[in-house]
Amino acid sequence: MFLVMKEKNFISTLDLTREFNTLPAIEIDYITFSGTGEPTLAKNLGEMINAVRQIRKEKIAVLTNSSLLNKYSVREDLMLVDFVVAKLDASSQEIFERVNRPLDTIKFETVLQAIKDFKSTFKGKLALQIMFLKENIEYASEIAKIAKEINPDEVQINTPLRPCKAKPLLKEELDRVKSYFDSLNTIYVYNASKKEVKPISSEKTLLRRGKID
To answer: 39-73 pLDDT, tens per residue?
Structure first.
C-alpha cells in the first residue's frame, strides 16, 4: 500500500487551476484530493489547496493513508482543508504490516500518534476510514478502542465492495464489527446511500484517469 515516499509535484498548480476553470456551474459537496496514490506526497499540496480556494466556494477534503501525518509540512497543508479522512486499518505493527504492507520505515505507533496529534489541533472535520478484511476482523474491538481514544468526528466502516484482489466481508460479519463502534458517529458501507453520478470530464481526461479503455 505505502510503496513510495518521495515527495514531488505530480501535477503543476497551474495545470490544476486550468482544469478547475473548465468546470461547469454544478453543485459539488466537496472538492477532494485523493487519487491513485497518496495526495500528501504532493509537495505543492498546500499551494494547490489555496489555488482551489481562489476559484471555488465549495469545502475541500483530503483522503490520506496517514503515513506522512507525522511531518509538520503535511499537517500544515491539511490544516487548510475542511475535511480530512485518515486511514486506520490496524491495532498493532503486526496487523499494520499484514493489512497495509508499509515500507519498513513506516511504523504503526508513529502513524497512530500522528493521527492523535493532528486531531488535537485540527479545526475541521476528521474521519477515520477503516477497511475490514479477513486479516483484521478479529482485531475489530482493539481498533474500535483506538478509534475511541482518537475521538474522530466520524468513523467510516468499510470492506472492499469494488472489484479488487481482497475479498469483502459478508454483511453479517461486518454487522458484528460495527457493534464495537456504536458509541461513535459511523458511516457503514452496507447501509450508506449511493448517489447517482455521471462524469463531467472530457473523454481525454477520463482516459488519462483510467476510467475508460
So the answer is: 999 999 999 999 999 999 999 999 999 999 999 99
C-alpha cell at 91: 491495532
Helix axes 45-55, 13-20, angle to 10 degrees: 30
Terminal CA-to-CA distance of the chain, rounded, Å? 25
How far is Cα 186 from Cα 194, in angstroms, rounded to an integer? 16
- pTM above 0.85? yes
30 touches 61 (CB < 8 A): yes
Which domains, and CATH codes, for the chain? Answer: 62-192 (3.20.20.70)
Distance from the Cα of residue 182 to its chain's centroid: 21
Residue listed under C-alpha cell 471555488 = 56
Task: Identify which of 114, 136, 120, 213 has the alpha carbon closest to the alpha carbon of residue 180.
Answer: 136
For residue 69, report the phi and psi dihedrals to the nearest 5 degrees: -65, -15
Question: Would you report the helix, strand and coil content of the chain in percent, each value rounded to 5?
Answer: 40, 15, 45
